[in-house]
Amino acid sequence: MSVEEKYINPFTDFGFKKLFGTEFNKELLIDFLNQVLEDKEQIKELSYLNTENQGKTETDRKAIFDLYCENDKGEKFIIELQNVRQEYFKDRSIFYATFPIQEQAPKGREWDYYLKAVYTIGILNFAFAESSDKDRYKREVQLLDKETFEVFYEKLTFIYLEMPRFKKREDELVTHFEKWMYVLKNLPKLQERPQKLQEKVFEKLFTEAELAKLTLEEMRTYEESLKVYRDNYSVMETMRKEAREEGRQEKQIEIVKELKKNGVAIELIAKSTGLSKEEIEKL
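The structure assignment produced for this chain is given below.
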């Protein structure tokens, strides 16, 4: 761990739960969620729930959430931190959301299928590759009517924060939500609380995030968590480089094909691209 770091990395499992997963710091989570939800919902009180959700039987697959909460209305909130892109990440999000839905069914009595809202909040250390808008860092998903684009069902909401797409500097921050995005993305790089983040909630966040205030046991746990984070980061960077290299190779192949189609001599193509004559002839 760098000696220059002053604050916890919130993208580690320890850091995330230290800042958002305790009763003492519950006001941080409430303030953050209210900014994410905007006008959709304003949370006044939250209760932490068991993060390990069992299936109907012992053989059913479990779901283990990072944080699982309930507000004073009985609405459920799954808060997930995801550092590594997964092939079936969207499928997993849907699967996880079924647990707080099914647990609402009462046992042994009549039920009219009335459900309370379920929210999934995903803080992602990657961006969805298929997104056409490269500047949009907040994605809100609900069931829609494909013809009218009206919301078909309002009580199931998925909100994803694609952190790599958030690129605002401190002097560009305007809204309270933008300040949360900024501090989550930049906290381990900071040496002091930025002037733009003088609200009381951020004062508490920076106080709780100080590495110097961790106990020896907490520091050991944090360092283990940080190692996992850095290993995951290394894997992601390797995958990104491989993808970029693959993209360059595909582009080069298309250029070679176009040059051949236009009658450019193979010798000239080989000299320009570094490919052998045999490789070019096969394309």
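Interim note for the steering committee: The chain has a mean pLDDT of 87. The radius of gyration is 24 Å.
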